[in-house]
Amino acid sequence: MYVRHRSGTDIALLMGLVHIILANGWEDRKMLEERTYGHEEMREVAGAYTPEVVSDITGVSKEDLHRIAKTLADNRPGTIIWAMGQTQHTNGTAVVRASCLLQLTLGNMGKLGGGANVFRGHDQIQGATDVGADPSSLPGYYGLDEGAWKHWANVWGVSVEYLQSRFKNKKMMEDKGLTVARWYEAVLLDPKELGQDVGVKAVIYWGHSSNSISQMDRLKKALDKVELIVDIDPFVTNTAVLPDRKDGVYLLPAGTIYESIGSATNSNRQVQWRPQIVKPVWEAREDYDILLDFAERLGFKKELAKNSKYGAWKRETLAEDLLREINLGIRGIGYVGQTPERLKRQQNWAHTFQINTQRAEGGPVNGEYWGLPWPCWSDKHPGTPILYDISKSVANGGLPFRLRWGPKAPDEKSLYAAVDIRGSKAPNPDYGPGKAYGTDLTGQPIEEALAEGLAPWGNGRARIKAWNIPDPVPTHREPIHSPRPDLIAKYPTYDDVKNHWRVPTLFKSLQKPDWVKEYPIILTSGRQVEFEGGGASERASWWLVELNDMYCEIHPKLANDYGIKNGGWMIIESPPDLDAKPSMIKVKARVTRRVGPDTVFLPFHWGGFLEGKSLEQKFPEGTVPYGLGESANTVTNYGYDIVTQMQETKTGLCRIKKA
Amino acid sequence: MALTTARMKFYIDAKRCIECGGCEVACKNENNVPQGIARIRVVTVNEGQPGETNIAVPCMHCSKAPCVAVCPVDALYHRPDGIVHVNKETCIGCGYCLYACPFGAPQFPKGEPFGARGVMDKCTYCAGGPDEPFSEKERKFYGSNRIAEGKLPMCASICSTKALVAGDAEEVAKVVRARVAARGSGGGAWGWETAYPAGPRF
Fold this sequence. Notes:
The complex is a heterodimer. By secondary structure, chain A is α/β, with parallel strands linked by helices. In chain A, 28% of the residues lie in helices and 13% in strands. Chain A contains 23 helices and 20 strands. In chain A, the strands form 7 sheets. In chain A, strands 12-16-13-15-14-20 form a 6-stranded mixed barrel. Chain A has a 3-stranded parallel sheet with strand order 4-5-6, with no helix packed on it. The longest helix of chain A has 15 residues, at 92-106. Chain A is globular. Chain B is α+β, with helices and mostly antiparallel strands. In chain B, strands 1-6 form a two-stranded antiparallel sheet. In chain B, strands 2-3 form a two-stranded antiparallel sheet. In chain B, strands 4-5 form a two-stranded antiparallel ribbon. Chain A binds chain B through residues 1-2, 529-530, 541-544, 546-547, 592-595, and chain B through 18-22, 24-25, 28-29, 35, 47-50.
């Protein structure tokens, strides 16, 4: 069955399903009671999401809601899959949590064929997150506190004092950084408004396309104003051509993945070794070489490489040595066992893996799971193919929930799971976490836990109620740009946050019930399956461009109401945001029933046009892509997730007209 | 293994295609097909509605190919392995094949004055043409010859969901049977009966 709900109402939909499942007694009581914390509070919250209420919020009929719930209950285990549709919302974190709650309620967690599975946008995003591209953490999710810095100083063989000398002060060192979604505000705003003393003066883009980020007009202003722009990419990206400036922009051509070597981690936490297929062509260089030059010139290469336990940054073995450093340092989530040797061996014996179990049968990698999915606790561990599966021992790829928040919740309830991991030798389940398993570089605490059949991180409960983030149990909140003024009153968004990842972030003050009067149509955005990210590589393909133009998907009814024809030009205007100026794009209409009559959809891969004007003349000679088009993110609306600051590009408002 | 002549077929699994366009792009890149000519194209039916289906349509290299039957100059012919080729030096561009083909496979350069069609171009099953394999002439007129290299057509090689399967009839039939068995319903072998009806081979 296919059900289309109003964009931005995911939590109402998910909690509505939880409501129906609980009301009918279809929940997995054993899972909720033995392995979760706070399910009583979920019952309370879900109680309000009756089919009537949910139907009104989401636009999904009561009958369909019942059918979905019944289908999920009758077909267990089932999985929930999403890409950015759940995350790119002002309450994106809560939406994802609601999906997890639904799966816990159904007992679908920790099971083959179950789980809550996000598809990352492209190759290696998971790996980049794991090694600390997230500005709130050092590599391996250790955070930024003193203990985290101490651990990594230990791994790198340097002193914490030396590391601190690279920062203005200790506070800056331990404070979450600017995000890619908002960095430009730190160029534009008065430093007094920022969570740091000075504004941003230089920006380095590395393999990232700025047209995948919203608020294009603000971004352009910042790119015009910032002192230095460095764009490292195989292609000339949007970042290079957006600003109106003659100098201060440096393009460093980088090799593609085929021209480099190293490990990559996919969404399923599987790590694979990638050999170099060809040497970088033309003037392109491998990322490693560019990185080493930066380290040298920024003045920290000597000190950081000096005591490196693996090879002191020797160029010939750098890819392997980097992974060995990850194996040594990232113990908290089990990046210990994915050594270069094991990954290369798996690559050579790929044919011995069973396609359904992902496990090797016989041969030199017998019993290993493909990609040694983390946690892979030691160089003998087979990897963990499914998170939180306690039907097998940890040494054999099983895993309980992590005991992350101590033995007791603030309400004094136990956070120890009330069920043993199969095959564990623990006298009782009140075990762990093992002492310093994340920072002890000898690996002894990990080995001890595994010998007992236990997880180094203990046997905890999944937090249905997360007491330390907004909306401990997810509740519906209307998008900032909501088409339903009546529901804004009932389900308002969050209060503004003054210092949210170092920049002020608006919620309530921008949620105006009147928006819908002038901007009556829901605007959502997403991907085309044949494009990736900012689309620089695809738009440079003569063959692929033939199939595509930048377009707007519009329902036949809406198109006819506005006199817009399939293939004809249309204009989309977004509400004024921080600049008090509406933005517009001019694109071709694609009349289709893939969207509902209240919504239009834009793919975000396009660039090279800005508000009706071509940027073609700004590309260096010979680098103009075959495909140029308006960027969806010129008109996607303002809005950021209350926890992660992920941009709200899935739900906005707009008005349209025939061009 | 018995020594018999292979019989090449396409299996277009209508239940698997996700309309990524990979086959279209790979075909053009491999064979240097000009813009405006589509040797394979993905057709979407019931777009945006329950039951939406995507079908990649190349030349099916039919057993009883209507194009071969109607060609007045015998420019179209079957190879012994069942692949249908067009000889571009014989073709007079009459367009009969275009009307005869149930799949819309024959392609003609567009935009010629007075409806002149030029010679026909179509999917070669990545098997080049009547000229010397790997010769400059073959490359220019027909594109690559992967079959002579012992490889499968490019579209089927890169299909990410394996919706497009190519190869010897017996091998392809095994894939179809396995999918039918796994699904407990049809194999979604779109166009199969039209292209490869039961009865004596071509």
